[in-house]
Predict the 3D structure of the following.
Amino acid sequence: MTTIPFYIVDVFATQRYQGNQLAVFDARGIPADSLTAEQMQAMAREINFQETTFVLGGSLETGFDVRIFTPEYEIPFAGHPTLGTAWVLAHHIDNTGAAPLTLNLGVGPIFIRWEGSTPWLTAAQPKFGPMFDATDLAQLLHLSPDDIDTTVPIERVSTGLLYVIVPVKSLDAMRRIRLDVGELEAWLLWHQQHKTNSPDQLHTSLYVFCRETYQTDNQLNARMFCFEQGKVAEDPATGSAGSCLLAYLLKNRVFGADAVQLRVEQGYEVGRPSLLELDGTVSEEGIYSLNIGGQVQYIANGTWN
């Protein structure tokens, strides 16, 4: 019987049992023909976390080859799986400690550095897509049009995954967000953001933020909603969305500067408080440096048969 070691961690978590859960499989000793994409997908669906990763090969010198699966499909990049996998490699699989490392993902190489025991990733250059109508998004979120902050745009951004960044005015509005699965799927289909008609063959997700926060030392509050397995899922912590938000803040000069450093809280509405650290700049030539950091908490390890 083939066995595969696996590890469970919480990412963007200042304490255990917060942040976003991740399962990391160390499959480097498994022959390629013994672990197919279909099997990895089935294992990710069995785990049923927002994402599950598989380390398939590589080294500190060449970078580690990693594939990321949601319960529904494979994705080219995601923030909390990247940071969590790097942490597991550094502390349990390869024991490389604070040495910088690279993960070879579907989106390309992603560099990881360390501040103490906290991993930081550098995201790919952002791609900015269409803008959307505030009244339309308010209706989709079951909010009043007055709840939307119209001083800045509603805009799609990608650093590997697609997000529509939606600014709202208050924490009260954040709490009142409601999404209907039929309405969300219809909206995705109408705007060609559904995996069946999107050029990326991935669902676009919504990342809603406001400047009011639960914790006074944080600067933004955020919620992420995605269409997953025919349901609306809310993610407790989303590093890929954080990198898109960071690019959006810089492009639109939301804080009036070409450098942004801030803390984003997420996950409060689903009982898993999370903290994302964002640090970025944009040059006069439009080159972005998008850095996302977050603490990782070790939960468990085991063997998969």
